[in-house]
Amino acid sequence: MLKLKVIEKEITIEEGDSFKMVLSKYGALGLDKQENLSELIGDDKGELDIEKGFVSFGDIKMPVQILGFYSQDLNQWSWAWDNEDIFGENLIKAASKIKAVGDEFGIVEFNAPIIQLDYDACHSIAMTATAFLNYDAYYAVSEDGLDIFVAVESEDIKENNSLLKFRNTFYTFQKNFKIYPKIAFEAYTKLKGYIYKPHDDFAVAKIGESRIIVGFTERGNITRILMYDEEE
């Protein structure tokens, strides 16, 4: 009997996706990237040079794309694509790609020039955009009552692909963000290039010979997260 090969569903933004769904798909990978950046810079504060298009951490310089900025007084996020006169065409290319996604799929958080939200929500937006656009990380620079969020690329940012980091990143993400946990686990696993195996009430991420097993309720909430490291 011929056995048909199951085609893995890729992680993409689809028609009808809300921002919560997009965050669920890309947020864990975005958080993963942020942890890589933190391992490099520690507590160092970045200095942004908009004219040259760099953010500097001591001797480390990283080219940036401006995503947007948060006004602390107004509690609002403004997209860089709506502020070309401030940042210039070359520094808003990443933000413009996000607007195009917002226009195509009707995601208000991506295509509204100004959004009323709190500071934490800005991180959700930047984290999602960073992962979707495949930048290495993002960083927020505070200047004159504004927090300017930039996407960065740098060979100095090294990936930590340990089993423990994967487990801890997913645990932190599902605990601290309002997302769909089951979708988030599948997306994070696949976007990291690992093998994903779904079952009725649990799912498995196969990382080499090791496993992360996450149990779910019928509504998709998490009941347990188990780690089996076969390399130890």
Give the secondary structure arrangement, pairings included:
Blueprint: H1 19-41, E1 47-49, E2 54-57, E3 60-71, E4 76-79, H2 84-87, H3 93-105, H4 108-111, E5 114-116, H5 119-133, E6 137-143, E7 146-152, H6 163-176, H7 181-191, E8 195-198, E9 202-207, E10 210-216, E11 222-228
Antiparallel strand pairs: 1-2, 2-3, 3-4, 3-7, 4-5, 6-7, 8-9, 9-10, 10-11
Helix pairs in contact: 1-5, 1-6, 1-7
Principal-axis shape: globular
Counted beta strands = 11
The count of helical stretches stands at: 7
Radius of gyration: 19 Å
Strand content: 25-35%
Q: What order do the helices and strands follow?
A: HEEEEHHHEHEEHHEEEE
Q: What distance separates the N and C termini?
A: 40 Å
- Unreliable stretches covering 5 or more consecutive residues: 1-6
Please, what is the average pLDDT? 93
Task: Report on this structure.
This protein has 232 residues and is of the alpha+beta class. The chain has helices at 19-41, 84-87, 93-105, 108-111, 119-133, 163-176, 181-191, and strands spanning 47-49, 54-57, 60-71, 76-79, 114-116, 137-143, 146-152, 195-198, 202-207, 210-216, 222-228. It contains 7 helices and 11 strands. A hairpin with a 2-residue loop joins strand 2 and strand 3 (60-71). Helix 1 (19-41) packs across helix 5 (119-133) and helix 1 (19-41) packs across helix 7. The longest helix is centred in the N-terminal third of the chain and has 23 residues, at 19-41. Mean pLDDT is 93; it is low at 1-6.
